[in-house]
Amino acid sequence: QVQLVESGGGLVQAGGSLRLSCAASGRTFSSYNMGWFRQAPGKEREFVAAISWSGSSTHYADSVKGRFTISRDNAKNMVYLQMNSLKPEDTAVYYCAADRRSWAAGVALKRSEYDYWGQGTQVTVSS
């Protein structure tokens, strides 16, 4: 089992940057692909980015490509989401999640494909 705790959210002006962190517990963290999702008020939770268990492969939603970077440090059981050039439409609660499927099976883009979730961290981007 994996427990996930996000941090690093906050209030930032448009054009600014934030780095979200996700701390994972569990000896098998390095065997999980990891993802970031976000949910804005009144909207469905949507995929943001994913990274393979080794960190060698990543995938991004079109809406964040070129602005956000996902990374991980398996030695520290950490996953990060560096968010640059933030826009008001990036405002949401951001969640990290763990997926135990094989990366070769395809990037997990759906909420249902993830096995463990954190509690979320709020990101608010002011215009």
Number of strands: 11
Morphology? globular
SSE order: EEEEEEEEEEE
Q: Could you tell me the mean pLDDT?
A: 96
Number of helices: 0
Please report the distance between the alpha carbons of the first and last residues: 40 Å
The whole-angstrom Rg is 13 Å
Level of helix content?
under 10%
What does the largest sheet look like?
Answer: 7 strands, mixed
Into which percentage range does the β-strand content fall? Answer: over 45%
Class by alpha and beta content: mainly beta
Regions with little confidence, pLDDT below 50 for 5+ residues: none
Key attributes of the depicted protein:
4-stranded antiparallel sheet; globular; 127 residues; 7-stranded mixed sheet; mainly beta
Summarize, please:
By secondary structure, this protein is an all-beta fold.
What can you tell me about this protein's structure?
This protein is mainly β. The protein has no helices and eleven strands. The strands form two sheets. Strands 2, 4, 5, 6, 9, 10 and 11 form a seven-stranded mixed beta sheet that branches. A four-stranded antiparallel beta sheet has the order 1-3-8-7, with no helix packed on it. β4 and β5 form a beta hairpin. The N and C termini lie far apart (40 Å). 35% of the residues are buried.
